[in-house]
């Protein structure tokens, strides 16, 4: 009977322990001696394991049908004596697999007086989770800290208890350190078949950190402070603040981050170091270091946040968090790249901009809950680090922060009334004129217009507009049709269908009531693919954009809001496919547009935005030419633009910009400089040298400040349109229309790739590096890279073309049909209608683009003639032969290709020809063009002629 009773008690005990594991099968349990493991008060009042009646127990997911195998053994370690070692193999079944060992307490343990959890650990290198279970927390929802890997040698860990973050499976709850029921070490990897081991020793709870630890997580109270600019310092301990490393692991399982103290070599100075890794492929990944305040901090009497930072070169977001702002919607300032050396940052609090995920809420500086430093890049697999030190909140005003900059009197009166009017954007300028005036004092000139962004959750900003207008600035609102940056919130069809009419009417009514002129830029950069109102985001249907734009405009017109200056704005880089690349298809009409706009940036070689270093002409010449050719009676503004400073000389770029604007771009009557540290350090006042350069550049009398005179530009543009057209030749020097006299063949031309039998007196076109183009990232090496001689003749049946092409990577074209232009090819442009207007800007029904594909030497694909305009093979023959310096092509294009054209002597047809060059990658890198610029393939006005003789 006694034996049966003992067995029953053992059964009940195992049942209770199984319930504690909530379905996790218990393999065995064994008590450990105090020699092996203990919980220690810092005051050396030991609470031994036996006195708590605690015991170590192991569990896995076996109860759920998994096949995890593991064991725990006492092992004798040469360095540490007797230690606990766990071996495991994670089986093949189920998504959630783990092996763990728990220190169970027979009654809840109060550890609220402790700050640190310390232990010694080594292992096979795999991830490990340390979890703390408390009463009231459901199964699989413990508070945990993740070690990204276990070290091969013994390592001391000292982790701040507040850094334990709740697992994200259950209802979120605060950790109750007064009711701790277990501490667990368990494998955190979820990979099938994984094997490993870990061993640990000396588990302790402490009121202070271990000074000997090489992995210290600290409040850094003695190193970081919030200061009243040199006096009345508010130290972190007085605020009971502490640092935490956070990531998205609970929600997405994709990131790793840690905070530790580091020390400059050779210096007795500690700083905070933050290491991170973005490991998975989810849309939203983040890791951040958070300085949290248990009580709200009132920063309303302070002006700026300053700190020192260095890092691995990646983006970092500096964020202010208040209780009234939703999660993922902080106010932030973006540092596009951390410097490898310490760099001081002074950020005016008013320049922090709210993240665009949630509802717009004004920053409450009286209720700051945390300051965060977040890794801002979203690149898969990205790893990096940054370090911060000397964080202070300052009362220093903006004028005091301008140390090193030369201060100039602000010129606000113009000598002339016609030129290019200055404009600017940065966060806070529309609300705080002091921010604006500081920049103006650095460049010695007043701006004529101030731009800012508003989404469709915002009311018309009458107060901001009036403030700017009274100070002689023309307001410029970029009105973005979305709700808080939500790309799925508003569609163009919904606008056209009237779903947002009430909101638009209220805006129009408020605009009319304010009554003064302002720019309204609606649905900008519609030819890109990054906004929900873009043509690519709306099934490539440009008519949707036109209808929505006109619908908005019509509501304003009916409301009598005639004070609006409408800006139709494109991006200099289009994301539209060829068949829809005419941005003019999305033009709403002259009655709906007052100003044309162009956006474009020289990103340079900025890490994460390595798009190449572009000159001002490379950014804007082509799109400017297109707009002037189509709409020569409209003024143009650069709606937003700037240059980065990595990959080239930004000072020289600015000087070239102002010289180009005055000499070659007379239709650009205003520009808006994007004066913000975002994807790159765009600011014109990034440093004293740059600000002084800008001062020298815009001191030219061509650059103007009067917001009143800018209103006259719509009328002036109508009178200057011939000037605008005449200046295009400066941007397109090959635009002088050439004429080729093409003699009739005296004998039959045999298409065999051998050009030796061609007559010596046929017309020959020369195309070389002087009239050829490369992409911005590629340099034209020499004429062996690409050059050509083109021979032309004809008979009653066909046009004949002989091409002798020098190409260091010849016959690189594996594309078919419409994509043949992407490789080595010849492009022929032909206007079959002799009566067509030679100044027409787009194709008519009798205009053709013919592409002759060279084929690919690797696949021996035959060359062919493709009628791009009709999307079919063209009538004719072609033969391509490899030569020592490149290749020869002999081409016969039947006149029947051009709707059965029957040419006679002295006929004159629009004509152009270009050689496409694909180098080692097989992708087109450049072109040799006989006549015109980059848009020759869609703009017949830049073609030359052939006259048949």
How does this structure look, described?
With 949 residues, the chain is an alpha+beta fold. It is built from 14 helices and 52 strands. Strands 39, 41, 44, 45, 46, 47, 50, 51 and 52 form a nine-stranded mixed sheet that branches. Strands 28-29-30-31-32-33-36-37 form an eight-stranded parallel beta barrel, surrounded by four helices. A seven-stranded antiparallel sheet has the order 1-4-7-13-9-10-12. The longest helix has 19 residues. The radius of gyration is 35 Å and the shape is globular. It starts with a helix and ends with a strand.
Distance between the termini: 124 Å
Shape: globular
Quote the average pLDDT.
77
Spans with pLDDT under 50 lasting ≥5 residues? 1-54, 208-240, 249-253, 774-779
User: If you compute it from the alpha carbons, what radius of gyration comes out, rounded to the nearest whole angstrom?
Assistant: 35 Å
Q: What is the count of helical runs? A: 14
Q: State the secondary-structure class.
A: alpha+beta
Proportion of helical residues: 10-25%
Measured by DSSP, the beta-strand proportion falls in 35-45%
Report on the biggest sheet: 9 strands, mixed
Overall number of strands: 52
What is the chains' assembly state? single chain
